[in-house]
Structures are given as structure tokens and as C-alpha cells.
Amino acid sequence: MSDRQARVLVVDTPERALSRALAEGLAGHEVEVARDAFDAIYRIDCSGPPYDAIFCDLAQGDLPGPELWAYLSLNRAPAAERMVFIASAPLRPETRTFLRCVPNHCVDLPVDADAIHALAVRRASHAVDRKPEAASA
């Protein structure tokens, strides 16, 4: 398998350091940082080819990871499938239940740079059609 550069979106509020924590593992990939979930939705809709992976803190901002996933799963299902959750804090019981119900990966901080790189490469190698995603009607 070749190490194709992955197109990655990191959903990270300005006061958080998720993108810094992922930086080593995502070095060499095309990385964009969305300042919140709403910026992420805009970027998913308007910034060209789909992202191979979308890293999102479970406790991120005004629209936490599970709620962003729910919105995307209803409106941009392929994007929801590409989400990788980051657990930057102890998980609440309802968040644990959510994670048991979805097929998405969840990574704890501190992240293993090699594992993040391998995940991005795997996602990039499985990307067959990188056309922009159309919104559901």
C-alpha cells in the first residue's frame, strides 16, 4: 500500500490544542483546521474534494462530536463515516454509550503519532471517489 497524502480536517476550537496533539502524526498530509463544528460543516460543504478523515474532539465547543456526527449522518453521511473522535477528557456515561453505538474510531489523548499517521494513510488509500459531497435533500 502506498502512503498517499490524506486530506484531513481537524475540528478544534481556538483555545484547545487538538491540532497540536495530532500534528506529528499528520505531518506530510494535507491538514485544515476548522475553528468549530459550524466551520467544519462549511468546509465539508464548500472546500473541494471530501476529507479522508475528520478528527473531532468529543467535547469540542458548542456542537460536541456526537452532535456533529448526528448532523452529518443525516445530511452528509459519507463525512460522518470519516469522523475519528478524540477523547481529550474523561468520558461521560452517555458519551461511552454513543461510542458503543457508532462504528467510528475513538482515540485517547495523548495520541500515538504513528497510529494517527497509519489511520490517515488507511483512510486515504480507501478513498475511491473524491468528488465534493452533495447535501442531502
Helix content: 40-55%
Q: Structural class of the secondary elements?
A: alpha/beta
Radius of gyration: 14 Å
CATH class membership: Alpha Beta
Q: Might you state the CATH topology name?
A: Rossmann fold
Describe the structure.
Helix content is 42%, strand content 18%. The chain is α/β, with parallel strands linked by helices and 137 residues long. It has one domain: Response regulator (Rossmann fold, 3-Layer(aba) Sandwich), CATH 3.40.50. It has a five-stranded parallel β-sheet. Helix 5 (93-101) links the parallel strand 4 and strand 5 (105-108).
Give keywords.
137 residues; alpha/beta; Rossmann fold; 6 helices; globular
Brief overview, please?
By secondary structure, the protein is an alpha/beta fold.
Please specify the SSE layout and strand pairing.
Layout: E1 7-11, H1 18-26, E2 30-34, H2 37-46, E3 53-57, H3 65-75, H4 77-81, E4 83-87, H5 93-101, E5 105-108, H6 113-126
Parallel strand pairs: 1-2, 1-3, 3-4, 4-5
Helix pairs in contact: 1-6
